[in-house]
Amino acid sequence: MSNFVDYVKIHCKSGHGGAGSAHLRREKYIPKGGPDGGDGGRGGHVIMKGNAHEWTLLPLRYTRHIKADRGQNGAKNQLTGAYGEDIYINVPIGTIAKNEDGEIVGEIMEDGQEIILMEGGKGGKGNEHFKSSTNQTPRFAQPGMDGQEGFIVFELKILADVGLVGFPNAGKSTLLSSVSAAKPKIANYAFTTLTPNLGIVDYRNYKSFVMADIPGIIEGAAEGKGLGHRFLRHIERNSILLFLIPADSESHFQEFKILENELQEYNPELLDKDFIISISKSDLVDEELRKEISAEFPENKKPLFFSGVTGEGLMELKDAIWKQLHG
């Protein structure tokens, strides 16, 4: 998923309402027929719609402006103008829309869900509404109301069963490519993954679950350093967290505590999620070193060892994940 896009800003404009009609009836045998102007039609809404077949905001990446149609004007014989056509913005499940002030306008939680981001302007009333005992033939009608206009920011929080949490180069991309068909870029530099990658992991008896490799965390991410909040935002939507600490780390338990602290600082509720601790790159250490590493952790947080390169321990890791998801 190298083309994963999780942030898009679009200028949106809903349709103006149509004007009301100030028409007066003029028929051959009714010389003073009175007002019969119809109302203007509502302008088109700008609507965000959930689409389970979309995984990314990429289709919107090059969309700069979205504009709904205006409502039609009212007409004689009390005919109401047609509504302006609504415009739909299809987004993946897990998308949040915010206005220019950063306020959340809506959040898509399921397929087919619709949220009006900007309402179309109301149509103006025709002169038929303004008839009274003192004014039998009003020659005026209301103009249509203006639509709304402004920027909308779309942000996608990944919906995955398992979120991989670890420092850059912890082996997250290697693990994902080993257990799924995802092909993340793998290289030895500070931010291996700048955009999230999703992979479908096959499990026993044709079962599967979704794993997300999320941009590498660094100390201070909660304060906005490195990829900061853009990274942490994705973790909120994962069912369980899989902490990855490389076998060649200088202090395995300390590294776990730093990662845990970053989540705590950002959102303490993240620590209420189920999680698994794992030691990646375990092909680099022998059995004696594994015992030493395991001894660093308390009894209730013993890590699982695996190697994404050799495949050792991957089935046990998948078993543990499945048990947490469905236990």
UniProtKB/TrEMBL annotation:
Q: Which organism is it from?
A: Chryseobacterium glaciei
Q: Which UniProt keywords apply?
A: Cytoplasm, GTP-binding, Hydrolase, Magnesium, Metal-binding, Nucleotide-binding
**Any one GO CC term of the record:** cytoplasm
- Which Pfam families does the record cross-reference, listed alphabetically? GTP1_OBG, MMR_HSR1
User: What is this protein's record name?
Assistant: GTPase Obg
Residues that bind Mg(2+): S173, T193
Question: In which family does this protein belong, per the annotation?
Answer: Belongs to the TRAFAC class OBG-HflX-like GTPase superfamily. OBG GTPase family.
Q: How does it assemble?
A: Monomer.
Q: Any idea where the Obg domain is? A: 2-159
**Which cofactors are named for this entry?**
Mg(2+)
Purpose: An essential GTPase which binds GTP, GDP and possibly (p)ppGpp with moderate affinity, with high nucleotide exchange rates and a fairly low GTP hydrolysis rate. Plays a role in control of the cell cycle, stress response, ribosome biogenesis and in those bacteria that undergo differentiation, in morphogenesis control.
Residues noted as binding GTP in the record, renumbered to the chain: 166-173, 191-195, 213-216, 280-283, 307-309
Q: Start and end of every OBG-type G domain? A: 160-326
